[in-house]
Write a structure and sequence with these properties.
With 287 residues, the chain is an alpha+beta fold. It has two domains: 4-138, N-terminal domain of MutM-like DNA repair proteins (Alpha-Beta Barrel), CATH 3.20.190.10; 156-282, Orthogonal Bundle (Helicase, Ruva Protein, domain 3). It is 24% helix and 22% strand. The chain has seven helices and ten strands. It has helices at residues 4-18, 41-45, 94-99, 156-164, 170-174, 185-194, 208-227, and strands spanning 23-28, 50-56, 59-64, 68-73, 79-84, 105-111, 115-120, 127-132, 269-274, 277-282. It has a four-stranded antiparallel beta sheet with strand order 1-6-7-5, with helices on one face. A four-stranded antiparallel beta sheet has the order 2-3-4-8. The protein has a two-stranded antiparallel ribbon with strand order 9-10. The structure holds zinc ion. Residues 260, 262, 265, 267, 282, 284-285 line the site of zinc ion (ZN).
Amino acid sequence: MPELPEVEVTRRTLLKFIENKVIKNIKINNPNLRFKIPANFKKNVTGQKIIKVLRRSKYILIYLKNDYVMIAHLGMSGKFLIKNNYSKDFLKTSYYSNEFSSKHNHLEFFFSNNLKVIYNDPRRFGFFLLDKISKLDVNKFLSKLGPEPLGKDLKKDYLILKTKATQRTIKTLLMDQRFISGIGNIYANEILFLAKIRPNKISSKLSLVDIGRLHLSIGKVLKRALKLGGSSIKDFKSSVGEKGRFQNEFKVYDREDLKCLRTRCSGLIARVVSQGRASFFCNECQN
Ligand SMILES: [Zn+2]
């Protein structure tokens, strides 16, 4: 499932190709996603210029000239594929033509610069909705999100306050989008390893030293993942088919029974499943 780095990679790729371009036409092949594509979608989007492409948490926000915003979520397997409409070649061809069945092309956008952008989603947990810019503050998906973990929004004082107030485990808390936006299972595991905190530690028991390390680790792990183009496990690739490389640097995720990679630690990586999600951690150096 794409987490913040993968969604940000997707946003940046989209931005590069579609900013200031006009959507000449849209083809809705199959409106059935997690939510059905709204009936007014085609009418309000066709002919519009893309003003900007932003991201909030794992939502991609595509701003249109007419004050509407397309809110896209990739769900489990959603992806944008970008292709030159007037040649047979896909940009970075192997990506689209060999690996993704066109029967899962839900939406096709035809742009003024001869580009076609396809939204493909085999598992259909992603969605496309439409809202007015003026109503985004009260949008049900966006209004309750916690601070963004990249940049300066996420303050150490906020982490101190929130962790003190809950008896939930720190890993559960990290993955709660109302606490922090965009972190899922993979990055929660990696962040907690770097911070030397055991995933099942009760949040209110974290020391100030723990929280200091956690604060730094959140930024470090996500920035590094973003720099490497995200993590390509299963089928994530950017919209022009580039694989991410952060999976090559996983320290704990999917490393059960392997030796801990921390210098001078002789521990082994353990795997414990709770609530359907696997936690990976070192028994020796994460406390
Ligand atoms: Zn260790």
